[in-house]
Structure to design on (608 residues):
């Protein structure tokens, strides 16, 4: 079999029944992402986009494609932020890849560390606690929002792919987490909270294996191993395993889940979002739903 | 360990961390079901309840408990309907158990068969088609509604347990079936459609294994094997396997899924239900969303 252009097949899309050469595959990925950006108004005039990069394939692809768009425009800017949680050799290697990518693309990169910002690395904070991902996720998002804002970003872009998004949807659905469920979507903004930088996910319709194949096709520098040494978060793994099986048996299932959530979430937001007083944390002044934000609460617990 | 009453432990409830003797277990199940009936107004004055029974544990428990309530009241009536799809020995055995139960409880039973109603048994209709469950489910629900109505029932009760309900919720969620998703719940009614008998599910908060233990504790006659010979519907099996694993790791997950769906569905119904013209099938005059109902469409396809 050959690609419809006659070229040698590089990627087989089971859910579409298509086979694409490297060039057609790359073009099709970029077309999809640009369509996602256009339909959901992910970026707009005069945006200064901050891309959260880890050195992994997803954020690498995200930075690359956003830079391709931004570099052609005079009214937009782009930069990258990496968070160094201090997870030993693993983070050192991924950050070195992130730097390499930014140098290649000529995109400024800023690196912030848990050690400097919170006084301790993740391993020091955890001190043998099990739920590393909860701590790390909360602290990382907090720091990214704060640093993006301090660097005058108008958008904060994440490299979440289709699998990540379907996993988050299903996880919050089966565990009945309404607050997090309603926060899902291609764009998350909260105009009432001035300190919150709107988040965008340009890759949320691209399956994980296609993001990987895209990085490989373009030979983009990235750290190939997926798993962080702490990544044993079993909830997400149970969900992931189920979704792999589902997608394998019923190709297109992941798309369907994301599409269905996109249909349900807007009317649910209307119903459940009541305009409440916006609070800011009494300790750090960052946006919070409670008097003390989750980060300060966690840091308090760890006696920081 | 002993039950809080001092009796010998009969059932261990992992999600509650309780251990119950036979008597306390039976009482707790009945209390839960009665609460479910009360909170959701499942039955009301002057009801004539039709219970769909298959001979299996779920419908057995459902008939037993509803009869316990109805027999104490003068304004209510109860009867059972069994559908004989003509699935050979399997259905013969289950129907014989259903009859035994009704005799024991002194509840009238009516048996209707695919052969008499549609002219063919399920195996004859299927003629080697794979999706037996789709055909059978549609035809069975159609016949139950029609016969319940002809027998002047005001409610049609099903023995769906917690696992069934969580499975249906997740199945319709991951496959993005909005119509079916919105039809889930403890009570399904459609006042606009006169020919539709309101459906109730009194057991939807009872886990499958507890329904089983309940039947065993009361020594209720039922056919113990779960699986119909056609029951190879792989979609539901994939979902079931995942939910078993989830409940095992995170006891209480099944409840959480049902509770979350109960929270989301009412506002979604408000948003998505537009009052359309109620249609009745041109061929059989039963309620239908299209000109020709699903049953007549299926029967047409099978050249009946």
């Amino acid at each position: 079999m050959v690609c419809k252009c006659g070229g040698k097949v590089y990627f087989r899309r089971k859910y579409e029944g298509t086979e694409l050469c490297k060039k057609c595959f790359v073009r099709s990925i970029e077309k999809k992402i640009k369509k996602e950006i256009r339909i959901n108004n992910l970026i707009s005039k005069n945006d200064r986009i901050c891309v959260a990069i880890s050195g992994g394939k997803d954020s690498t692809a995200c930075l690359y494609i956003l830079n391709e768009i931004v570099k052609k425009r005079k009214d937009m800017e782009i930069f990258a932020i990496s968070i160094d949680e201090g997870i030993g050799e693993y983070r050192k290697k991924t950050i070195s890849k992130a730097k390499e990518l930014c140098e290649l693309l000529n995109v400024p990169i800023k690196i912030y560390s848990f050690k400097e910002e919170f006084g301790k690395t993740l391993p020091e904070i955890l001190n043998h606690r099990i739920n590393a991902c909860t701590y790390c996720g909360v602290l990382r998002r907090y720091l990214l929002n704060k640093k993006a804002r301090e660097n005058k970003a108008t958008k904060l872009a994440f490299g979440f792919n289709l699998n990540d998004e379907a996993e988050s949807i299903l996880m919050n659905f089966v565990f009945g987490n309404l607050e997090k469920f309603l926060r899902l979507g291609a764009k998350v903004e909260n105009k009432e909270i001035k300190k919150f930088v709107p988040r965008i996910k340009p890759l949320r319709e691209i399956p994980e294996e296609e993001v990987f194949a895209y990085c490989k096709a373009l030979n983009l520098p990235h750290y190939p191993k997926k798993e962080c040494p702490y990544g044993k978060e079993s909830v997400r793994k149970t969900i992931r395993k189920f979704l792999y099986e589902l997608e394998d048996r019923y190709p297109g299932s992941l798309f369907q889940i994301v599409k269905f959530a996109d249909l349900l979430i807007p009317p649910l937001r209307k119903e459940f979002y009541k305009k409440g007083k916006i609070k800011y944390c009494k300790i750090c002044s960052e946006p919070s739903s409670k008097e003390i934000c989750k980060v300060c609460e966690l840091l308090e617990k760890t006696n920081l």
User: Anything to note?
Assistant: The longest helix of chain B spans residues 253-272. The interface with chain A takes residues 170, 173-176, 178, 234-235, 238, 242, 245-246, 249-250, 253, 256-257, 259-260, 263-264, 267-268, 271-272 of chain B (CB under 8 Å).
